[in-house]
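Mods, move this if it's the wrong board.
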Amino acid sequence: MNYLDFEKPLAEIEGKAEELRAMARGNAEMNVEDEARALDRKAQDMLRDLYKNLSPWRKCQVARHPDRPHCRDYIEALFTEFTPLAGDRNFADDQAVMGGLARLEDKPVVVIGHEKGHDTKTRIERNFGMARPEGYRKAVRLMDLADRFRLPVVTLVDTPGAYPGKGAEERGQSEAIARSTEKCLQIGVPLVSVIIGEGGSGGAVAFATADRLAMLEHSIYSVISPEGCASILWKDAEKMREAAEALRLTAQDLYKLGVADHIVKEPLGGAQRDAAGTIKAVGAAIVSLLKELEGKSPAELVAGRRKKFLDMGARGLAA
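Not the wrong board. Structure tokens:
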């Protein structure tokens, strides 16, 4: 278990409990179970207190936790007959974006998502979930395919933002993001998006301009990272805590603002403490949100999606 900075006191208690049990395993005459259980109870109480009222910055830390389930984990657990489709038919295949045909509860869908990787090798391969232009063009191709064959689209968002490298800009990064966002608004099939970790900048909007947007309880969704915001506003990246407060990037804030439609509750201590339970809850939310869109014609879906985002803009102006 990787512990976050604010979880260090918890790490000490859980470490002591494990130490006692390890000693007992090495010496059958030792009876430390009562003491270990007392430490377990203390750790559980501390975990509950730590997660009872997380600040926006701490939620950012939880959303970025390396042990949270990633796109690949959700696809493997929730979808059957997943057939990955690669390439943008123009330049290359972007490993930061997974996508393809699959079945959800035996119904055909198209699933697309950012994949960060789970260890050093795969994180480098996946570019830490930061997509290049070809990743967004691959997503556009898959959404076109879904629209042609009347298949619902599910997107799983987990990215710090689109890759800002020189090559990406040369190949039209901003245009690719805009095309993907535009395609989300144009397709006449149900589109459900879930923020499973970070939803960073236009790189997230390009997948999350959906009929229904769900967010995990400790996920974040923002126009810019707190560190980036602090660097621009205060010329000091260390003011990221203040920036996180100002950005209103938590699932709870975005639900109140009408940006998020549904919050998926996480296990105590975050998704990283019970990946299987989190994935199951996300699957149930996706199925429920898709059912809300059943029976709607392509014209109704497109008009409803357009109205949703126009109303969002109107509320922002009114505020």
